[in-house]
Amino acid sequence: MAKASTTTTIDPAEAAHFGKLAADWWNPKGSSAMLHKLNPVRLKFIREAIDAHWPMARATFRPLEGKAALDVGCGAGLLCEPLARLGAKVTGVDAAAESIAVASAHAGAGGLSIDYRCADVSGMTETFDLVTSMEVIEHVSDPAAFLAALRDRLAPGGLMILSTPNRTPKSKLAMITLGEGLGAIPKGTHDWDKFLTPEEMQELLHEAGLVAGEMRGIAFSATSGLHLSDDLSLNYIFTATKP
């Protein structure tokens, strides 16, 4: 069994910020409304990535049946619940106890059995077939250590999927100046200086001993809303594997 890392990547200020938002997380018109709009786009990419990685999964509505999935920085469970419905045995970890409490209650009300933990991924020892972490790496104290911790949780032959904002003028305008400035995103959610470019991410993945796979942009247009795109300038989502 792999040893747990002694290095924490949790930023206490970030955990406190998201903990305060926990009670409103499942309200599609509340403070997490943008996440509700983003989630279907993520799920489209995730399903396509699962089908590509495990081709036998394409013919079923439950492609993760018999597989273990870990969602790191799970919040109140917006991704954990769909992963469970896809058949996975899901573990969700988050640094905010308030988020874990809301996640557990919501899953229970929906009849879903999900292992939620207020924990640091660096302290875990299990391995998982699928490891996901959506819009989290830009909030941790040490991205390189965080990726190393995710790598250690990935089982041989497993699949990792991450998403994060790009550090561009467009993302600063859309997510901070307009998003936070106009109230669509809670103020203080983002630190643009901590956003990672795809090139920086590729280097971090290489340093962690991971191989980057498909990378798609998550773009926005007035006609299509948020959607998968070849344009990486706002936000991007990608797969990674162990060699």
Rg, rounded, reads: 17 Å
CATH topology: Rossmann fold
Q: What is the count of DSSP helices, taking H or I runs of 4+ residues?
A: 7
Largest sheet: 8 strands, mixed
The helix-and-strand class reads alpha/beta
Tell me the name of the CATH class. Answer: Alpha Beta
Strand and helix order: HHEHEHEEHEHHEEE
* Share in β-strands: 15-25%
Named CATH architecture: 3-Layer(aba) Sandwich
Q: How many domains comprise the coordinates?
A: 1
Strands side by side in the biggest sheet: 3-2-1-4-5-8-6-7
| Overall strand count | 8
Q: What would you call the shape?
A: globular
The low-pLDDT segments are: 1-6
Q: Helical amount among residues, as a percent range?
A: 25-40%
CATH superfamily: Vaccinia Virus protein VP39
The average pLDDT value, as a whole number, equals: 90
Assembly status: single chain
Description of the molecule:
The protein has 243 residues and is α/β, with parallel strands linked by helices. The protein has one domain (12-241): Rossmann fold. The chain has helices spanning 12-20, 33-53, 80-85, 97-109, 143-153, 169-180, 198-207; strands at 68-72, 89-94, 115-118, 128-134, 154-165, 211-221, 225-229, 235-241. The chain is globular and about 45 Å long. It starts with 11 loop residues before the first helix and ends with a strand. Helix 5 (143-153) links the parallel strand 4 and strand 5. The longest helix has 21 residues, at 33-53.
